[in-house]
Design brief:
- This protein is of the alpha+beta class and about 270 residues long.
- The chain has 2 domains: about 1-80 and about 230-265, no CATH class; about 85-225, no CATH class.
- Helix content is about 25%, strand content about 30%.
- It is built from 3 helices and 19 strands.
- Strands 7, 8, 11 and 15 form a 4-stranded antiparallel sheet that branches. Strands 12-13-14 form a 3-stranded antiparallel sheet, with no helix packed on it.
Length: about 270
């Protein structure tokens, strides 16, 4: 009797975690570069009532009762979201695989992101929305600088990450190279908040950061951003399934409690 109760409680926990994942996905439906999460369930250890026997004059199958369910892992769906044109020169989307590499100017810690909401600060650094440096060739910050004695009128970023500055006299200057990083196992990346990921070493960098379009990385699309890859219709359907699963397991808890109560009252 307690087995059914414990199994149902494990189901309540699992479906609650599933609803937590779905809730987070839906909450981030408009988050730039967000990748939806998926919970993977597996059955728990089973109690063996009778072991299988083979040989001699008889054989029998094993008899087992499962003890519930548990969440084996929570993985991200790394498929690309829709690329949406913004018309802002500093907004960059990765058309394909790869991550921008950024650095905290205070701690020098490095992270990767697929959120290309960038801008240029007062020093000419290309930075994220939180002020982190976008890194380029050699792991150094990308700096937009005009030719000596001139001022910058505008700039552009090519598909391969090359940054070109248009000077006040109409001439152009090559000014920096944005690089991308790719991983063998992006599932090992750890969300650090702010659309940033850490734990890059354990994710298995394929190479050092490279120019976009090399080593399996995608190309850069300037004036655009990658939207969240959350499928709202699929999430709502999954939410209904998780809700019904939670309700069914709560019913098992209630029924088990009623039967235990009947057993206790049998003494009277």
């Amino acid at each position: 009797m307690l087995t059914s109760l414990n199994s149902a409680v494990s189901g309540l926990d699992a479906f609650q975690q599933e609803m937590d994942i779905i809730g987070n996905n839906i909450a981030n439906i408009n988050t730039t570069g967000f990748k939806s999460g998926n919970g993977n369930l597996v059955d728990s250890f089973s109690n063996t009532l009778q072991a299988a026997t083979i040989g001699g004059t008889s054989s029998s199958d094993s008899m087992q009762i499962g003890t519930g369910v548990t969440t084996a892992s929570i993985t991200n769906d790394w498929s690309q979201g829709t690329i949406n044109s913004t018309g802002v020169s500093s907004d960059l989307a990765i058309n394909g695989n790869g991550f921008f590499v950024v650095q905290d100017p205070t701690t020098t810690n490095q992270y990767v992101t697929q959120d290309g909401t960038f801008s240029v600060n007062s020093k000419g650094n290309l930075v994220t929305s939180t002020g982190m440096y976008v890194l380029g060739t050699g792991g150094t910050p990308v700096v937009l600088a005009p030719a000596a004695g001139l001022s910058m009128v505008s700039y552009s970023v090519g598909a391969t990450g090359a940054v070109t500055v248009t000077n006040s006299d109409g001439s152009t200057t090559a000014s920096g190279q944005i690089t991308l990083q790719n991983f063998q196992n992006p599932g090992a990346l750890v969300s650090a908040g702010g659309n940033l990921y850490s734990n890059m070493a354990n994710a298995g960098p394929l190479t050092a950061a490279v120019n976009p379009g090399q080593s399996g990385t995608g190309t850069i699309q300037s004036g655009a951003l990658e939207l969240s890859n959350v499928d709202l219709s699929a999430e709502m359907a999954a939410l209904i399934t998780a809700q019904r699963g939670f309700e069914a397991n709560s019913k098992i808890v209630t029924t088990s409690d009623e039967i235990l109560q009947d057993v206790v009252q049998m003494k009277r």
